[in-house]
Specification:
Elements lengths: L4 E6 L3 H10 L10 E7 L7 H4 L3 E3 L8 H15 L1 H4 L3 E2 L1 E8 L26 H9 L14 E8 L4 E3 L2 H14 L3 E11 L7 E6 L5 E5 L2 E4 L5 H4 L5 E12 L7 E8 L20 E2 L2 E5 L3 E5 L19 H12 L3 H4 L2 E13 L8 E4 L5 E5 L5 H18 L17
Parallel strand pairs: 1-2, 1-11, 2-8, 5-13, 11-19
Antiparallel strand pairs: 3-7, 4-7, 5-6, 8-9, 9-10, 12-16, 12-17, 13-14, 13-15, 15-16, 18-19
Helix pairs in contact: 1-6, 1-10, 3-10
């Protein structure tokens, strides 16, 4: 085999960008002989990799790659100033059970409407603080209404749980890969030539010029998330749409990631307030709430399959009613969230593996020489991105996974 390698990564999300990063840091990488190209249809981190929560946890899954990814996150943050560059920090994580309050009900404050803003006047009385303590709420988790909270159970502490800002992390990985010689091309992949069971080239349509291009390839890593099947039809990857919002609370909040279980009142959402959702609500809802650095809170709701996967991340449509549901749910248990400024309403698609017996993403060889798969990471793509990227660099340069035992994730088991 010639020493020359043309390595093409399809997909500019977290998996593709960390793969490019670790390829350009592999001991065998030689920029004079090895060309690394990321082909991305719309923009780097345009999908879930830019709109996810960014939770990192040693208790995530699958267990065979989680420790590697968690450790690499810490090492990357140390090496590249991740605390400042992409918001890396250690946090607490817990399960919060609460009873939602009716919309528009501010028990200890008032709402001002003269400038479309509202100000919480809730006071933390000794009685309120006592109510939170009785429910087992940590002292610094003081941004929830005492009358709403029922219980708190710790799931992870700063030794086992951390976070990053997904968009900042993913774009940083791409930029760091480019610094070492990787190239990013914006174009939609239309074909992979693997005649005679060997990868030969990739065809794509340039995003700017709409011209068709064919680039040679000795190695192709498909990391297109939920779009993987459109690039490689045999891949059993499906798509789940997820909505999220970001909110700036009026006052800074403590560093917690929360999995909530909120019981809504029977009349929840039945209001004349024009800004509120009019859709029917489940009795119990489970939004996730992640406090981020720089006084920002990320909240997401349940997934849905009502709208098929569009052609690219640029074509994803956001259902504003679903976003409003999330805002209403989290506001029903926290005046700090209800009275905060909504910064972003967004949607993305998560990649899931649809195959019997699969216990995680598909990582490794496909059976076609030079063609690799790294997709299906569900909601743990950010957590497992660095580990997957490092493993893919080992598959390409060493012919096997070295840093973790990933036989159970072998794509050939389901293809």
């Amino acid at each position: 085999m010639s020493d020359q390698r043309d390595i093409v990564i399809i997909g500019g999300g977290i998996i593709g960008c960390t793969t490019a990063y670790f390829l350009t840091r592999h001991p065998q990488y030689d920029p004079s002989k090895h060309k690394v190209t990321i082909l991305e249809a719309s923009k780097i981190a345009g999908g879930a990799s830019g709109k996810a929560g960014g939770l990192l946890a040693l208790w995530a899954y699958p267990s065979n790659i989680v420790p590697l990814g968690y450790r690499l996150h810490a090492e990357l943050a140390t090496e590249h100033g991740g605390e400042e560059r992409w918001g890396y920090r250690r946090i607490h994580c817990g399960q919060l059970s609460a009873k939602g309050r009716p919309l528009g009900d501010v028990k200890n404050g008032k709402r001002t409407k003269d400038n479309n803003s509202s100000i919480s006047l809730q006071k933390r009385t000794k009685e309120a603080i006592g109510t939170l303590r009785a429910a087992g709420i940590p002292k610094d988790l003081n941004w929830f209404a005492p009358e709403a909270v029922r219980s708190y159970d710790e799931m992870g502490d700063p030794n086992t749980t951390a976070q990053v800002h997904p968009y900042q992390f993913t774009t940083s990985m791409a930029a760091l890969a480019e610094e070492e010689g990787a190239q990013v091309i914006l174009g939609l992949v239309t074909a992979i030539d693997h005649s005679n069971n060997t990868v030969k080239s990739v065809t794509y349509t340039d995003k700017t010029t709409s011209q068709l291009h064919i680039i040679p390839a000795t190695d192709v890593i498909i990391s297109a998330g939920p779009w993987t099947r459109s690039v490689y039809p045999p891949a059993p990857i499906s798509a789940l749409r997820a909505h999220s919002v970001t909110i700036r609370p009026l006052t800074p909040v403590s560093a917690y990631a929360l999995f909530t279980e909120i019981t809504l009142p029977p009349t929840f959402g039945h209001t004349n307030e024009s800004t509120k959702s009019k859709r029917a609500h489940s009795k119990q809802v489970t939004p996730q709430i992640y406090a981020r650095p720089n006084n920002e809170i990320y909240a997401c709701g349940e997934g849905d399959t009502h709208v098929p996967l569009p052609a690219t991340t640029a074509d994803v449509e956001t259902d504003l009613a679903r976003c409003q549901d999330i805002i209403d749910y989290v506001g029903s248990i926290s005046d700090e969230l209800r009275d905060g400024e909504v910064l972003v309403r967004q949607a993305c698609y998560l990649p899931n593996v649809e195959a019997r017996g699969s216990g995680g993403p598909l990582i490794g060889e496909t059976g076609v020489k030079g063609l690799f798969l790294a997709a299906g990471h569900t909601c743990w793509g950010i957590q497992n991105g660095p580990g997957t990227g490092k493993l893919m660099s080992e598959f390409v340069f060493e012919g096997k996974a070295v840093s973790a035992q990933v036989g159970s994730l072998d794509p050939r088991r389901v293809l």
